[in-house]
Amino acid sequence: MMRLVKFLFPFIIMATCSNSMAEDIKPQFFPDFFTGFETQKITGYESVKLDYDLTSKDNKNVHFSSCTQVDKVKDGDILMSEYHLLTMLRVNCQALKKYILADPSTKSYLQEILVKKDVSNLPATAYPFVSEYDRKTRWGKKLKNYHKKFIMKSGRNGAIEVETETDSLLYQVVATGDFNGDKIEDALIRIDWRVIGAFGKGSKMVMVTKMSAGKGFEAR
Question: In Å, what is the CA distance from 109 to each residue of 92, 106, 123, 183?
């Protein structure tokens, strides 16, 4: 028995050290998807510099040099034809704020999205659904199975282009990190969408995570 303990003790020490020495996965922010992002090194939310212009409803130029300015603008302040750009800017700033507050992760199961650039197995709720009824019909289904038409291909800078029977979409991972405190890596995905054959378009953000290799993706 003593020999067994002596044999196991170094193994236990080594295993413990191995776990404690595992490298954390640091949060990442991807400014390639943030038009007008001017900061080289992010030190805080208010310190980030932007260079972005929209048009007010009375046709005056509205210049944004920070996300704090974006946070203060109201829906009715911007020309309706540029409202989709305001929603995109808001999503970018929301992602930036979450990135700054994110913790490092110890595990990640997001390779299908981050490496393979595949969003087909995301929950069908990772979509700009139009109503509560639409959201409920998507519950428990995957994107690729919910839609009658689901065409996916790689876009610029790692974005993922998707076309369904009703919409043209662009899925872009704008930040990764532990956003909910469980030490598992999450991804913030900005979805830019445009209704095919109509005028509706905009942006929304979803947080995607996967708790283990054997489980499916979750979208929140």
Answer: 24, 11, 15, 12
User: pLDDT tens, 15-46?
Assistant: 333 333 358 999 999 999 999 999 999 999 99
Rounded to a whole number of angstroms, the distance between the first and last alpha carbons of the chain is 51
**What is residue 13's three-state secondary structure?**
helix
Q: How far apart are CA 184 and CA 167, in angstroms?
A: 31
Count of CB atoms within 10 A of residue 198's CB? 9
Number of Cβ within 10 Å of residue 146's Cβ equals 17
Domain ranges of the chain: 28-101, 111-219
Is residue 160 within 8 A of residue 193, CB to CB? The reply is no
d(CA 211, CA 29): 21
